[in-house]
Amino acid sequence: MAGAPLEVIAHSLRRERERVGLSLSELAKRAGIAKSTLSQLESASGNPSVETLWALSVALDVPFSRLVEPARPRVQIIRAGDGPTVASERAHWVATLLASCPPSARRDLYLISAEPGRAKQSEPHMPGVIEHVVVCSGRARVGLTEEPVEVGPGDYVAYPGDVEHVFEALEPGTVAVMVSEHW
Amino acid sequence: MAGAPLEVIAHSLRRERERVGLSLSELAKRAGIAKSTLSQLESASGNPSVETLWALSVALDVPFSRLVEPARPRVQIIRAGDGPTVASERAHWVATLLASCPPSARRDLYLISAEPGRAKQSEPHMPGVIEHVVVCSGRARVGLTEEPVEVGPGDYVAYPGDVEHVFEALEPGTVAVMVSEHW
DNA sequence: ATCTGCGGTTCGTCAAGACGAACGACCGGT
DNA sequence: ACCGGTCGTTCGTCTTGACGAACCGCAGAT
Prior knowledge:
Chains A, B: It comes from Actinophytocola xanthii. Chains A, B: Residues 13-67 form the HTH cro/C1-type domain. The structure is a homodimer. By secondary structure, the first copy, chain A, is of the alpha+beta class. The first copy, chain A, has helices at 5-20, 24-31, 35-42, 50-60; strands at 76-78, 85-87, 93-99, 107-114, 120-122, 130-137, 140-144, 147-151, 156-160, 165-169, 174-181. The mean pLDDT of chain A is 79.
């Protein structure tokens, strides 16, 4: 999470406003707030109320949270085999981090390669996490430890990651894409 | 986007606080705000300033935006072939919606099957969109129309979706997972 | 039954945000 | 040059959020 929320908001507001091509006065009018207020907000000398920010997000037609999060980058490729990986000690599975939260988003994207053998048991992590898995090839037993599901190519599973869960390859060369949302 | 932000915040605050198991007084103390303030917020009779909300999100150790967004569900499977799909007129590609924004999140998850033929040209959609693609099988030319990239199994590409972009299968039976983030 | 500690709400006070008017700067038309 | 229009900032006023003390309710201990 960024350090100073008010600075972030100030920048976000100006950025979004200019993107839409509205003048400060015009935006203030549409949002139903005083332009003086908006002026102060964009110069980071203010501590807006939720309602004020909300009005602005509506007027700008952007999700509310867009105003409280920093900016972001562009194109990117990671070839199969490249990229930062994490592997278990016994190398039954390898996860490649494709896209980590930039810089304070709420999902990580992994490519998982696994071989049959001991299952990958995961302790529950941060509350509110949801994991999405799509199998590319092979077969796997995935999901909550108490009620795993067997899936094959093209199958999709989602489950809460804040309780114990598993990923166990059932065939050699099992590959899957995983999205981990942390909200 | 939900209707009444203050109601949502009120519920979020109570929900998160109880999840962590803190009393109202205790949380207020840790966040450095008056417990009366927190009390009013949880009863939706208030219009908190950003700083106040920020202090609470820090004390609760949850991302800020968690407090301004509604709640969410549990486990889910979509078998290969199932699920709502969208296809092009000439059926060169089929997209299956695996996980749509629940209810106002910021990403959609698709499974894409495509056959060689005319490329899937996409008009730029909502500004701020980023698309992530991981190829499961086959080969494809993906990315910005001006500079597409050729990718194969296991390859990953991400690109801004708010400018013209393509997805063109180069081999029969090309399958890919796509995450579309709308922020 | 009484006391003490902690849960949450209500109320009066004060500081801070939101407002609107006024201001200087800039631009295009006459 | 002058005028009307807009753009963004500054300033004084009034509304409103945040604070803290007082308050009610409920356990558990004495």
